[in-house]
Design brief:
Blueprint lengths: L1 H24 L1 E4 L6 H5 L1 H4 L3 E5 L6 E3 L14 E3 L2 E4 L14 E2 L2 E5 L18 E5 L13
Parallel strand pairs: 1-2, 2-4, 3-5, 4-6, 5-7, 7-8
């Protein structure tokens, strides 16, 4: 009987530690894509505590002419998978200053107002970066960490 009680106590203790570590280290959430500025603006409300977004490599994107800023994503520190940012009216990557890791691919295409990645200066890891049809784009050097 005492052994069973010890096992239950250990299990409860383990579960408590697991749940607390999520609160301390942030949560992972799966987000299919962001197609509107409102979806980005509401991210912190819709996914409270989420600091790590899971995206499939080519299935997720930030896309849409009405997307003008990424400020709603400021709590994100890691992206698992790939992210395609396409056909937006972003002028900067402001809002992603806390992002330090992308595990697969960061792809920019057809972002005619985007001119550099200065706001991604904390990004330490991105295995593949592609920039296409971003006519004002001038600077990638900060990614050489």
């Amino acid at each position: 009987m005492n052994t069973f009680k010890n096992q239950v106590q250990f299990l409860l203790f383990f579960m408590l530690i697991a749940f607390q570590s999520t609160a301390v280290f942030g949560q992972t959430c799966s987000v299919p894509s962001f197609g509107t500025q409102a979806a980005i603006d509401n991210f912190a409300t819709d996914y409270p505590g989420c600091t790590c977004i899971e995206f499939p490599q080519f299935g997720s994107s930030i896309a849409g002419a009405n997307i003008t800023n990424l400020n709603g994503l400021s709590q994100v520190t890691k992206i698992v998978g790939g992210l395609r940012i396409t056909q937006t009216n972003l002028t900067s990557m402001s809002g992603l200053e806390n992002l330090d890791t992308i595990t697969q691919l960061l792809w920019f295409d057809n972002n005619s107002l985007l001119n550099d990645l200065t706001d991604l200066s904390n990004l330490n890891s991105v295995p593949r970066l592609t920039v296409m049809m971003c006519l004002l784009f001038t600077q990638v050097s900060l990614l050489r960490k």
